[in-house]
Write a structure and sequence with these properties.
Elements: H1 3-13, E1 24-26, E2 38-41, E3 44-48, H2 55-59, E4 64-69, E5 76-80, E6 89-93, E7 97-101, E8 108-113, E9 124-127, E10 136-141, E11 144-149, E12 155-160, E13 171-174, E14 183-188, E15 191-196, E16 201-205, E17 216-218, E18 227-232, E19 235-239, E20 245-248, E21 257-260, E22 269-273, E23 282-287, E24 293-298, E25 304-311, E26 321-327, E27 334-337, E28 342-345, E29 350-354, E30 378-382, E31 391-395, E32 405-409, E33 415-422, E34 427-429, E35 451-455, E36 458-462
Parallel strand pairs: 3-33
Antiparallel strand pairs: 1-2, 2-3, 4-36, 5-6, 6-7, 7-8, 9-10, 10-11, 11-12, 13-14, 14-15, 15-16, 17-18, 18-19, 19-20, 21-22, 22-23, 23-24, 25-26, 26-27, 27-28, 28-29, 30-31, 31-32, 32-33, 34-35, 35-36
């Protein structure tokens, strides 16, 4: 049974345990014959979230490596090992508080209320900001940047921004004044400001810059300092670490971008879409330092493009391939390679073969799309099975109209894992904090990378279970 038929059968039956052929494996039955906590059948795992009372309950589900109970719906979260014991703690924020959960997944270490922090674009960081050996949690709220002691939650620094209009502000962290200490960059009232962790202004840039949703920082030239990337409705700005404008690509803001060496030439490139989060404009791959355009990909209108992911999916190709998950009721996911060649979407994930003549790139590539359901709101790439090639993950977001799931596909479109969280309203891969600083986990030390995601009341680390994996046999097809 191919992947598309497998997924279609889930939609029709509505429950994983009876959806596909093969042998089912269940979690422990409770007294009285109640529904099992989880059911495994083929690549499909059904998790009864009503039965998940503890982190240990979730860790019994095949593939789930760690879990942390959250006090509410986190807008953002991050996992960091702050005490060096090899086990990460979980830090997150909801609309008016910031909290920390211990590495056991259940004990709340601290909670700080009264910090109104809204929006999924509003990052949360946990770093040793001042290079003193201790971690700080950094969050925007109440028109200020807050630095909290990661161990206790106590306020170490509050940096007022001198604004009163409220709402979220695009901001990020990077190394602008010091190669060891972290600084903070934020767009405030039309100007880009850089602050040290002590609250000193390093520099400002611009006037009347229209806000985009995001700011990024990354070391684009390898000198140890961070450059600033700001896709905005005034253009797509790239600044040197000292505030000097390197270039402006023009266009409008994008909700996401990627920074990689896409073509394997040893230089970083930026992939960004420059038409205000729709696919009626261009997707660009540009040299990160000069802004020279290497790839210009045009496409038809597809809706709100927000999520990007890239990985190395093809053996024998030193370049990377790029996946897009637009928020659209019709178009679900598509891909290009580092040369701009479109790749064919198939059942659930694009098959990495060059597009044949007349093949529509908007093919209904996931049977969850039946009756116009919106499905692929989040996308991630990682080597989930330790074979040296990446896999692609997709998940249902808050606005999707389909069962709550996290799925993983090989680059050739073969379904490896489809986890349904019965009773949960949504699942979200941690995409915002990962564009530049990637904390890749391998808690089992088995070479199988784990993904982070959040579903109702939990942050979860999960790998593709080895028993669900298949030997990789991908043949590259090139013109």
């Amino acid at each position: 049974m191919n992947a598309s038929k497998q997924l279609l059968s889930i939609v029709v039956t509505g429950f994983v345990a009876v959806a596909v052929a093969g042998q089912a494996r269940s979690g422990e039955q409770k007294a009285g014959g109640s529904v099992a906590p989880f059911v495994v059948k083929g690549p499909h795992i059904g998790v009864n979230m009503a039965e998940m009372k503890s982190a240990e309950d979730l860790r019994r589900v095949p593939g789930i490596v760690r879990a942390w109970k959250t006090p509410g719906q986190y807008g953002n979260w991050t996992l960091r090992d702050i005490n060096g014991d090899g086990e990460p703690e979980c830090f997150g924020n909801d609309t008016n508080s910031v909290a920390a959960t211990a590495s056991d997944g259940m004990k709340e270490l601290w909670r700080v209320g009264g910090i109104e922090s809204t929006g999924n674009d509003n990052h949360l960081w946990c770093e040793d900001m001042d290079a003193d050996g201790n971690f700080e949690v950094v969050i925007f709220g109440n028109d200020a940047i807050w630095l909290l002691d990661a161990r206790t939650g106590s306020v170490k620094k509050k940096i007022p921004l001198g604004i009163s209009e409220g709402g979220e502000k695009p901001w990020y962290i990077g190394h602008f004044s010091d190669r060891k200490k972290w600084d903070i960059v934020v767009l405030v009232r039309g100007e880009i400001r850089v602050y040290t962790a002590e609250g000193r202004v390093v520099f400002t840039y611009g006037k009347n810059i229209l806000s985009g949703n995001i700011l990024y920082a990354a070391d684009l030239d390898g000198d140890g300092f961070s450059e600033i990337i700001h896709p905005s409705d005034s253009g797509n700005y790239v600044l040197d670490h000292d505030g000097k404008l390197l270039y402006n690509l023009g266009g409008k803001h994008s909700d996401g971008l990627l920074i990689e060496d896409f073509d394997g030439d040893g230089r970083l490139e930026i992939c960004v879409q420059t038409s205000g989060c729709t696919l009626d404009g261009d997707i660009l791959i540009v040299d990160a330092i000069t802004g020279a355009i290497k790839v210009r990909e045009k496409d038809d209108p597809a809706g709100h493009l927000q999520m990007f992911a890239s990985g190395h999916f093809l053996p024998g190709d030193k370049g990377r391939q790029i996946f897009f998950a637009p928020r659209s009721d019709k178009w679900l996911m598509r891909a290009i390679d580092c040369r701009g060649k479109r790749l064919i979407p198939t059942a659930g994930a694009p098959s990495l073969k060059p597009e044949s003549a007349g093949q529509p790139v908007y093919a209904h590539n996931h049977s969850y799309n039946k009756q116009g359901r919106r499905i692929a709101e989040h996308v991630w790439a990682a080597d989930a099975d330790g074979d040296g090639l990446d896999e692609v993950f997709i998940s249902k977001g808050k606005k999707a109209r389909c069962p709550t799931y996290v799925a993983c596909y090989d680059g050739d479109g073969t379904l490896l894992m489809d986890v349904r969280f019965e009773g949960a309203k949504w699942a979200c891969l941690n995409h915002y904090n990962r564009y530049v600083y990637r904390y890749v986990w391998d808690m089992n030390r088995n070479g199988r990378k784990e993904i982070e995601f959040q579903t109702d009341g939990w942050v979860i680390l999960m790998e593709v279970p080895q028993e669900l994996d298949r030997p990789r046999d991908v043949k590259e097809v090139r013109e």
